[in-house]
Amino acid sequence: MLENKSVREVWQEIERVMKDRPEPIQGMNTVYQYDITGDDSGTFQLLITNGAAKVVEGTEATPDCTLTLSDKNFKKMIMGKLNGTAAFMTGKLKIQGSMGLALKLEGILNEYNLSETA
Q1: Which of 39, 58, 60, 109 is most buried, with most CB under 10 Å away?
Q2: What does the pLDDT look like over 59-95, one tens digit per residue?
C-alpha cells in the first residue's frame, strides 16, 4: 500500500502510472509543485508536457499551481481517502496559483486510481 511507502516512492509510482497511461494528461502543459511538510517532507514538481509526465525533487520550473500539505495528508489524497476540496476547506491543503488546475489535478489523479497500486 502507498501509505507504507516514502513520499519519494509515491512520486515514483505517480510518474510510472502516468507514463504507462498518458491519455488523461494529453494536451496539458502544466507544472504542479507540492511542498510537503512533516517527517517525510520535501518539494516535488510534477511537470506535464503534452502527455508526458516527469517528477523532479526540488524546483526545476516555475509552478502554475503550488499545493502545500503534510506527508500523511498527501498520501491520503493520492489514495483517494482525502478529498482535495474538503482538505482545502479544512486548512489541511493550501493552494497558491490556479485553483482550477488544482481541481483538474485531483480529477486526473483519481483516474489513475492509485489506491490500487502496491
Answers
A1: 109
A2: 999 999 999 999 999 999 988 899 989 999 999 999 9
* 6 DSSP assignment: -
For the chain, how many residues are written? 118
Specify the 3-state DSSP secondary structure of 55: strand
3-state secondary structure of 97: strand
Report CA-CA distances (Å) from 86 to 42, 44, 47, 117, 118. 23, 22, 25, 24, 26
The class that CATH gives domain 2-106 is alpha beta
pLDDT tens digit sequence for 95-110: 999 999 998 998 888 8
Per domain, the residue ranges of the chain are 2-106
